[in-house]
Design the sequence.
């Protein structure tokens, strides 16, 4: 009996030993040690693993490399991309001719390293860089490159790892390219590839098959000037190396070895930088090429310019007009634009008697320069003269790292950024500049005529509106009392129903695992928000009005009404709703990066918010507010603007959410009173918090507070270490008075590089938090932030400077959406 037990124990131990040796012990494959599905080898530092995997629920098996220590593994390299093994009989081994091969159960070679010279005693090793190398002799002899017969780094898949090379040979034009997967679940070679094109000035390009899909713009010695935000705090930098053998390659390194990240060409052609987010336990993407049509090569055709902030995104450069005006109007921009008036050279060639004056140049700031530049001089002051002297020069630009560049022929793929980029000078006939006076007369006439027509129209419209408004108000109030559902029906009737999907409760219950707590994203003011995944795989956010409270129905209805009427890239999008029994549910698009406060007030995540990103977030919020206050057909006051109501998409673009308290202003109403003051302490303007008066200006106040939070990375409710009696506003004001406003900025921002911008933002933040009469409007805020006004007004003391007593208990810092408070002013106003 005991003997038997001992024997059992022994076999168990020996089996364990064996398993340990087999799975953990090795980082090599040799003539005698192979790996058989599902075996694997792990690099000596434990960072990378080579093994068998199935990318989707199919039985297809591939050999690949992935991060060993990360639960949500993403495959970095695949051996048999186009040839899966259909069962789990695969073996990775060293063949008789010394090559590393993958065989299936029938001993057919599925994949081979395919080194031609026959070698004996070779072995393969997985290194801590993620590289799989085939070397002469046995392991641990890879002291230098000379022993390497083959390496996976020379045969990249879709992932560009640190120290890998994206190379092109100058002489043979032979390229090492990265190719995308066919789809996220199919590693076979997809249609997109990434390569380094040398042209005149090196440029990284993504191809869709053989068509140009995206380009980085020229390399200036430290960045590609057509990508903005290319620098990352974690990157030691990109380098372009011209090695001795006539090969030019691009490579990069991480400054911090512990940072787990790489670059990836996704199957949809987008090039991103995933990084491992420790707390969220998931990969997050930092974008390089953005998922916008402007990033697609030549979207606007020749002489068109793309700007994601305009509608439509394409327009012709000044001095040009659509080549095919009908197609252009239909949004088919492929034909591009043509020059309106011919240049001096053409006039001479055409033999006109008078060639007229010399051409001029139109400056476009923050531009992504067009494709295929020619270099011609290193001296900035020569650019314009040289361009004028060459009839084929259509545009020029200057970069300190490159020199003068010019373009001939069609100018394709110009994009307008809001920051960075280069100054691009477009050559135009002198007549395009000389018509200002005539233009002024035309504009003045148009304005006068327009105003008259407008006044007449307004007159009639208001009459009509008044009659309707009276009717609607009586109906609306009655139904609120009677039945909520009827009212919803009515509101939906008014809203844009075609686009709104009515979901079934059952469907939503399945999508959110029965509204389980694990799926809960946040606790909103009037009910929880859940993450859900529909049966088609689409991720959604589901806000369920809590039944228990019996409260918030009004806000629910309000949100439905407001959000159905607005549509803007910086407002969160509603996908549908569900009204069944006493359930009232709104379905929104899912925002993978949660809300701004989870980033901004988290010491680690904050690192990712460099100044560019912060200023992008500020810009987005401004655009949304401009839309709400001015540009949409309605005028909407949000009333609860705060960091937790700013959601962030995959690329950290902001979207304003939560319209539960928003108010639509009718006609020329521009201020209203309420006895039901709702909002969040610290963000509420004094006239609103105290007297219930709200207007555009009260949103501006909240925006000002938000702006200071974004700059400083501190909560407005946090206590200021330097002086505990001060609020964030008070602290900002104190520093401002001392002339030390830069000290407010988050140390995570490299303030020196962006000194003027940061100062300007603090200034605007303080202007926004003054008393209502002194606050700027949002259009003014935008001009101020963009530096369109040379002299910024100096702010007066903000409305509050002392710390407010915190009125709502706030024990749950981790909950995403801190509830808004609700004060009834009945006692103040009496009733
Ligand atoms: C190995 O390379 C040769 C040419 O170099 C090619 O003809 C052959 O198909 C390759 N074999 C495999 C298994 O990839
Ligand atoms: C290969 O390795 C074996 C055992 O390690 C050794 O006996 C043999 O000489 C080696 N052959 C060559 C060509 O290096
Ligand atoms: C690589 O290592 C081998 C032996 O370890 C040595 O003979 C050779 O000179 C080294 N090559 C380089 C380029 O360092
Ligand atoms: C799994 O991948 C294979 C290709 O490797 C593909 O043919 C198949 O459709 C995929 N299955 C699913 C469910 O995506
Ligand atoms: C890539 O090219 C193919 C074939 O030309 C085309 O069908 C597809 O739409 C293109 N993909 C993108 C994202 O443009
Ligand atoms: C776009 O316009 C061009 C001519 O300007 C035409 O040839 C092409 O068919 C149009 N494409 C579509 C999708 O309408
Ligand atoms: C003008 O530009 C064309 C086209 O790039 C080039 O071939 C030609 O050499 C240039 N001429 C002069 C005088 O620089
Ligand atoms: C390249 O451009 C970037 C951004 O415009 C600039 O900061 C950098 O100094 C330039 N590099 C060189 C070598 O001029």
Sequence:
């Amino acid at each position: 009996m005991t003997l038997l037990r001992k024997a059992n124990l022994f076999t168990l131990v020996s089996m364990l030993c064996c398993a340990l040796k087999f799975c953990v012990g090795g980082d090599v494959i040799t003539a005698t040690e192979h790996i058989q599905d599902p075996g694997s080898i792990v690099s000596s530092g434990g960072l990378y693993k080579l093994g068998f995997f199935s990318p989707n629920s199919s039985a297809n098996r591939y050999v690949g490399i992935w991060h060993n220590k990360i639960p949500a593994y993403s495959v970095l390299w695949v051996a048999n991309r186009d040839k899966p093994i259909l069962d789990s009989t695969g073996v990775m081994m060293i063949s008789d001719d010394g090559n590393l091969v993958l065989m299936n159960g029938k001993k057919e070679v599925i994949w081979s390293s395919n080194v031609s010279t026959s070698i004996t005693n070779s072995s393969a090793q997985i290194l801590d860089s993620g590289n799989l190398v085939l070397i002469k002799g046995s392991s641990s002899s890879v002291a230098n490159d000379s022993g390497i017969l083959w390496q996976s780094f020379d045969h990249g898949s879709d992932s560009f790892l640190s120290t890998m090379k994206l190379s092109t040979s100058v002489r043979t034009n032979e390229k090492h390219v990265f190719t995308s997967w066919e789809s996220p679940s199919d590693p076979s070679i997809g249609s997109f590839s990434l390569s380094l094109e040398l042209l005149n000035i090196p440029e990284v390009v993504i191809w869709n098959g053989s068509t140009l899909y995206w380009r980085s713009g020229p390399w200036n010695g430290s960045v590609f000037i057509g990508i903005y935000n290319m620098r990352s705090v974690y990157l030691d930098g990109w380098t372009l190396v011209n090695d001795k053998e006539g090969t030019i390659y691009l490579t990069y390194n991480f400054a911090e070895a512990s940072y787990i990240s790489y670059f990836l060409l996704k199957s949809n052609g987008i090039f991103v930088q995933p990084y491992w987010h420790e707390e969220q336990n998931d990969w997050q993407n930092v974008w390089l090429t953005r998922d916008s049509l402007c990033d697609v090569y030549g979207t606007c055709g020749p002489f068109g310019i793309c700007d994601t902030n305009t509608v439509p995104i394409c327009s012709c450069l000044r001095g040009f007009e659509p080549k095919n005006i009908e197609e252009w109007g239909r949004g088919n921009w492929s034909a591009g634009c043509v020059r309106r008036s011919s240049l001096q050279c053409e006039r001479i060639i055409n033999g006109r008697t008078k060639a007229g004056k010399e051409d001029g140049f139109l400056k476009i700031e923050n531009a992504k320069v067009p494709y295929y530049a020619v270099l011609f001089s290193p001296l900035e002051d020569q650019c314009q003269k040289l361009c004028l002297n060459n009839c084929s020069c259509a545009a020029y630009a200057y970069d300190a790292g490159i020199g003068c560049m010019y373009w001939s022929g069609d100018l394709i793929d110009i994009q307008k950024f809001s920051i960075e980029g280069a100054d691009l000078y477009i050559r135009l006939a002198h007549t395009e500049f000389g018509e200002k006076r005539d233009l002024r007369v035309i504009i003045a006439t148009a304005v006068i005529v327009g105003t008259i027509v407008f006044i007449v129209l307004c007159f009639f419209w208001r009459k009509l509106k008044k009659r309707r408004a009276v009717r609607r108000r009586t109906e609306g109030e009655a139904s609120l009392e009677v039945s909520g559902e009827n009212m919803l029906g009515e509101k939906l009737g008014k809203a844009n129903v075609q686009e709104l999907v009515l979901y079934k409760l059952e469907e939503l219950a399945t999508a959110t695992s029965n509204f389980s707590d694990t799926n809960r994203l946040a606790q909103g003011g009037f009910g929880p928000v859940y993450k859900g995944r529909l049966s088609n795989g689409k991720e959604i956010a589901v806000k369920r009005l809590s039944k228990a409270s019996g409260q918030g129905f009004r806000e629910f209805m309000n949100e439905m009404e407001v959000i159905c009427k607005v549509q803007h890239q910086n407002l969160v999008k509603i996908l549908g709703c569900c009204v069944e029994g006493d359930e009232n549910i709104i379905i929104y698009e899912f925002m993978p990066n949660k809300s701004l406060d989870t980033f901004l007030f988290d010491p680690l995540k904050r690192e990712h918010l460099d100044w560019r990103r912060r200023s992008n977030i500020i810009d987005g919020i401004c655009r949304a507010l401009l839309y709400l206050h001015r540009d949409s057909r309605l005028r909407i006051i949000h009333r609860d603007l705060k960091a937790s109501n700013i959601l962030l998409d995959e690329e950290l673009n902001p979207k304003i959410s939560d319209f539960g308290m928003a108010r639509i202003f009718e006609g020329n109403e521009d201020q209203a009173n309420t006895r039901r003051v709702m909002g969040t302490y610290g963000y509420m303007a004094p006239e609103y918090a105290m007297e219930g008066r709200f207007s555009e200006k009260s949103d501006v106040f909240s925006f000002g507070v938000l702006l200071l939070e974004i700059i400083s990375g501190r909560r407005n409710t946090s206590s200021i270490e330097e002086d505990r009696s001060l609020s964030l506003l008070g602290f900002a004001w104190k520093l401002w008075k001392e002339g030390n406003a830069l000290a407010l900025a988050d140390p995570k921002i490299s303030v020196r590089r962006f000194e003027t911008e940061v100062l300007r933002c603090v200034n605007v933040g303080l202007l926004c938090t003054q008393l209502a009469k002194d606050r700027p409007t949002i259009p003014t805020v935008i001009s101020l932030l963009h530096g369109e006004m040379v002299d910024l007004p100096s702010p007066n003391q903000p409305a509050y400077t002392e710390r407010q007593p915190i009125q709502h208990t706030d024990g749950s810092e981790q909950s995403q959406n801190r509830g808004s408070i609700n004060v009834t002013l009945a006692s103040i106003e009496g009733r």
